[in-house]
Specification:
The protein is α/β, with parallel strands linked by helices. The protein has a domain of about 130 residues: HypD, alpha/beta domain 2 (Rossmann fold).
Length: about 375
């Protein structure tokens, strides 16, 4: 665990921690819904610095991690088709499907490439008019505008050999599903600041009204997270349930109106299963009928296959905050970054990877919260 003097604005962190110790009167469980926040918490040992009454659990805050195994199988099936070049972000190539990953497909001869933007895939389609270039799009509302921009640009410039597998997902339906679950024990949430930078905060108001839980939009620095926890605990101690914005330096109430308009123009909300969660009403984004010609699933006439997660991988429970990574029997043994069983050990934002990199092995966990 790193000491508080290594934090940016260490004095503010100390003050917030002192305030928390003096104000918390009972146990509270708070979930962050952002993989970047999870890694900051583990990197700086924030969970160990907080008062023992406060337990942090880690939600489905990594879009790579929540992409269900059947979407990986679908991408592999398309990649193996003759004349197809499949592009995606690096993390996606290592996520296991039912039988191998996209790197395995590439080793078997498929043309699978890493790109840094959907616009890179669109540029490749222009350079390779004899290939069907498919972009496997993954991300929350944060990255959906860039995919929408690529699709709209493909339509504007009439690029006929570009299409998208959309695995984009939305955060609010996942929070609602967690709160509706019979095994839920989360009493407050830290919402992902980057998602709210795009979408604003109004989407969370109905959730707070329905479930009477506080939601604090929070940034990514250690001081942001400690302040977000302090704001959430203050609401819980006072019996309040509101949406508050700790990340006001970046998040406006209405978000980024231009980015939201782009999402609404290109995508429509659809029901889809997440890893660890059943089909979420309007929990995913698919291309609207106006841009159906750029939907790879429809273009190739495929149906999303059914698939079963390996029983030894308990990633679903980790993603719902029911289980912490070291509590999974496979953690660090059958499952490691070199040989992952599930996406949370693969992704740079995955909770299992965060615990592994922080050295939080089961034998070292002790009384860790």
């Amino acid at each position: 665990m790193k000491f508080v003097d290594e934090f940016r604005d260490a004095a503010a962190v100390r003050t917030l921690l002192d305030q928390l110790r003096g104000s918390v009167t009972r146990p509270w469980t708070i979930m962050e819904v952002c993989g970047g926040q999870t890694h900051t918490i583990l990197r700086y040992g924030l969970d160990e610095l907080l008062p023992r009454e406060i337990t942090l659990v880690h939600g489905p805050g990594c879009p790579v991690c929540v992409t269900p195994i059947e979407m990986i199988d679908l991408a592999i099936a398309i990649a193996k088709r003759p004349g197809v070049t499949l592009c995606s972000f690096g993390d996606m190539l290592r996520v296991p499907g039912s039988s191998g990953d996209l790197f395995d497909a590439r080793a078997a001869g498929a043309d699978v490439r890493i790109v840094y933007s959907p616009l890179d895939a669109l540029a490749l389609a222009r350079r390779k008019p004899d290939r069907e270039v498919v972009f496997f799009a993954v991300g929350f509302e944060t990255t959906a505008p860039t995919t929408a921009m690529a699709v709209r640009e493909a339509a504007r410039t009439k690029v006929p050999n570009f299409s998208v597998i959309s695995a984009h997902v939305r955060v609010p339906p996942a929070i609602e599903a967690i709160l509706s679950s019979s095994d839920n024990h989360v009493q407050g949430f830290l919402a992902a600041g980057h998602v709210c930078t795009i979408m604003g905060i109004d989407e969370y108001l109905p959730i707070v009204a329905k479930f009477k839980v506080p939601i604090v939009v929070t940034g990514f620095e250690p001081v942001d997270l400690v302040q977000g926890v302090a704001m959430c605990v203050a609401q819980l101690e006072q019996g309040r349930a509101e949406v508050e914005n700790q990340y006001a330096r970046s998040v406006r109430k209405d978000g980024n109106l231009a980015a939201r308009a782009l999402i609404e123009q290109v995508f429509t909300f659809a029901d889809r299963r997440w890893r660890g969660l059943d089909a979420l009403p309007k929990g995913a984004m698919r291309l609207s009928d106006r841009f159906a010609v750029y939907d790879a699933v429809r273009r190739f006439g495929l149906a999303v296959p059914t698939a079963v997660e390996p029983p030894e991988c308990r990633a679903g429970e980790v993603l719902r905050g029911v289980l912490k990574p070291p509590e999974c029997p496979a953690f660090g043994t059958l499952c490691s970054p070199e040989r992952p069983l599930g996406a949370p050990m693969v992704s740079s934002e995955g909770a299992c990877a965060a615990y592994y990199r922080a050295g939080r092995q089961p034998s070292a966990m002790g009384e860790t919260k």
